[in-house]
Amino acid sequence: MKKYESYKPLSELWLSSIPIHWHSRKIKYLFSERSEKGYPDEQLLVASQNMGVVPKHIYGNRTVEAMKDLHLLKLVRVGDFVISLRSFQGGIEYAYYQGIISPAYTIMIPKDIIMPSYFRYLAKSRLFIELLQLCVTGIREGQNIDYNKLKNHQIPVPPRLEQDQIVRYLDWKVSKINKLIAVKKKEISRIAELKKTVVNEAVTHGLNPNVPMKFSGVDWLGDIPAHWKTTKLRQILHPFSEKNHPELPLLSVVREQGVIVRNVEDKESNHNFIPDDLSGYKMVKKGQLAMNKMKAWQGSYGISDYTGIISPAYYVFDVDFENLEYFHYAIRSKVYVNFFAQASDGIRVGQWDLSIPKMKEIPFIVPPENEQKAIVEYIPKACAKYDAAIAQLTQEVDLLEEYRTKLISDVVTGQIDVRGIEIPEYEYVEEEADEESDETDGTDEEAEEQEE
């Protein structure tokens, strides 16, 4: 990829130079600010890092359901840009729909000099996000963008025809990358299902296909080995709640991995608000079961390998079971995910509140201790080839995503010259919207509701 022939300096920390024929303008001269209220009948909108500004019913989960004072929410029109409480992580979002949104957000209206399609790429680029992070302020650990600071910074403004070429080029190249990523992610999902099947078969039927079987008592579960026993989870799981340990590491409970140490420095992954005072968070000891009660129906729970703290909205249990490694494999298998789904009551799209009384009645299949040990030894070996394939594909996806990020940033800031490139016919492919974190704990929604 070739660079432009000559550049000129730009007095900005986030961008040091731009092509010599490009202009630079302060944001306040390129956008006006919309602060219209009094539209309570408009649809509620959500600013999502993956989807842009869309109706709440499309986004679905993890947002406060505003039911009062709708006249105080800000109007957003199609083509506006929205600075949200997450913009310091993922950039400024484009509005695909008209509606109303939090009054804590800033609504930007582009003027004619800058094309919305060009700014959509610039506003989500890595270098521009660095600029946003220079403008953080407020009480929420830097999650507010001070627009009075931001609007006095300069951004590049290529000639209008060049903006159009940049957009066409990026639409083409990003579509090709997105298509490759989608194929690899689909393959990852397929292999992950194969791995789950191996685990599921081991914890429900054992390793010997020739043993006598008996009916489990559950129609969709079918038969289990005749010599295995069945108990109820109330005999195994006992609620535990201890707080006031803010010095302990912060943990997360996620669907694919169970309980992990949360990287509080990783702003890309921390979709949820982390309060300054963690004394209200629940303690989890190594060997206890931690569970995201809103996502238990998806498998967001597991035996913790760590002592730390988790959201006060989660469940923690002491586990009265000798072989915790076996219990972890079994309880996270597809069989028990289905049980937890049946024991949960839907409260909004993507979130089902787990009922403790229903959960206590879930049956748990218990093989003899020697078979538990054999299954624990078998599963890692049987899954090794799947784990290796998933790791390789995940690395390939990471490299493609990094290339996409760098390409967008380089093109919109003039580090790459795309003027003479002919754009062929192609199929436009949008970036797949990843599910926005399993770490739904209510604290983010509550904090935002108070601010609104």
UniProtKB/TrEMBL annotation:
Gene Ontology molecular function: any one: DNA binding
Keywords: DNA-binding, Restriction system
Region annotation Disordered: where it falls in the sequence: 428-452
Domain of life: Bacteria
Gene Ontology biological-process entries: DNA restriction-modification system
Cited InterPro entries: Restrct_endonuc_typeI_TRD_sf, Type-I_RE_S_subunit
Entry protein name: EcoKI restriction-modification system protein HsdS
Highest classification ranks of the organism: Bacteria, Bacillati, Bacillota, Clostridia, Eubacteriales
